[in-house]
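hey so u asked for the seq, here:
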Amino acid sequence: FFCKQKTAYEISLGLVGSEMCIRDSNYTVLFENGSSLVKCRVALMLGYYSDNLFAQKNEYFLRSIDFLFKGLALEKKDKALSLQCADTLKTIIGDENLVARLEPHINNFFPNFCAMSLQMELPKFYEILMTIIAQYGNAIDKSIIKLQEALVTHVDLEYKALKAKGLKNNMTINQCWNVIRSICECDLFYPDYLDGIEASLLPMFNYLMDPTNIEFDDDMIQVITTLIKKRGSISDNMGKLFPYLPKFFEKYKGVFGSLLQAINSYIVYGKDIFSTKSEWIEVIMQMSFVSIFNTRPHIEVNNTEGALLLQILLQTLGNGALDSRIPGIIQQIVKRLNSSPMADYLARELFNAILCCICNNPKLSLSYLHEQGQTEMFLNGILKAAEGYKITYDIKTLVIGLGNILCHGASFPEVSPFFTKIIETIIGILLKQAAEESANKKPEDQRKMSSGDDSSDSDLFPDEEEKKPRKAEKTQTLAKEKEKSKEKEKKEMEDSKEGNEGEDEGEDEENEEDEEEGIMKTPTEDVKMTIEMLECKIKKIDE
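ran it, structure tokens below
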């Protein structure tokens, strides 16, 4: 193991020897009859000097790649050679300077990849596949579907072999799923190969019927979420999988985890389907109720998942689709609000869920609160919680909900004493939001406003299209927070929310989306008028 440093003369001899071996049309004789040590040294030399070797002779360069593939395939017979060839291939394929030479031929390598994907256990091999997807995705043709089919077959065979031994998972299955997820997440394969990629996964989806005996269920949930987002709708295959999602929820004893994002995708991209499948709505509501009363460790974080899912459901499915269910939703939320433990951030999300009910159907929601004698509890709670609202998405819900209470609350005597406080809260929010917007306004935008050009005016709140990533990502860090102390959970959740405010899709699309959903619009130029109007109402109320 203690070797002296090679001299330039020794290196040149190695280069000449390696080049002659590859250049010779009978190089296969060396591969078949040469010693393992010689072949390993050839593979090592190719890794160090592949960018200079055969610079003018691409035929010989491709022959060297074939030599490495042959060595890589000998994992069972010659592990040392297989390891060295894998390391060299990863170096060559990952070298940005060689992309131009390899790209025209990358699809020719896929028969080798597909064949080896059925049996390889070497971790470096799967790293090579992920490098190819990342580096050459734009050049890969429908061969990517064949590769995924091979990976799925390998997972299926490996799992069945493990099951016979009483085991559930191993490193090879994890490595295959890493590549499968990389394929599904690569935008370059869409929309051309979307149907093929989805169809190749059908054998894996059969395991959804009983996920209790598998350990790669989380990988499947992530893939389902990705495919729905890439398509922008719910395909027939994805629709057939929905009834099995509660089995994952049961397996993890009332904790959503990555399932929350999958259900969110079903709601957001399958809005039309939900209007005809009331049983899907019922399934989501029941899971949400179980979640908000979950008493497992990190109780409040788990409970928050259920509250957020109810908000997503209420915000997305309007037009009376949930009217019959609003009383039941409010009943369960009020019951949880009156129990413990109760962190501030959990209370805020529960109050937000009631606000979403009020945004959905103000009269029905306020009537139910009145009948149950919970109006004062709710108004005191939400006005207190309003002081901690920092996320624009939540602020938007708060303002709309409070505005609906002002418009429809006069029929309920217990609401009237809160009118002044409600108006003051709305004014405070609008002033703060306008100040922040003004501070963030670009100098050129300010000049346009001062010159009377209001074409650059933006809405006080982010556009409706932001709801999709916002809903999908709002709780992205919930599962991670469960591993941390309760003292940090609140702060990290707020940080998680604040990190998901981006992805503005444009003002025209914003207006169209918001009109469809009935979202309140308050352009910047109208903020002062709104504040003045509310201040006049305060004076009248005081008088």
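The two ends are 93 Å apart (CA to CA). The chain is about 70% helix and 0% strand.
lmk if thats what u needed
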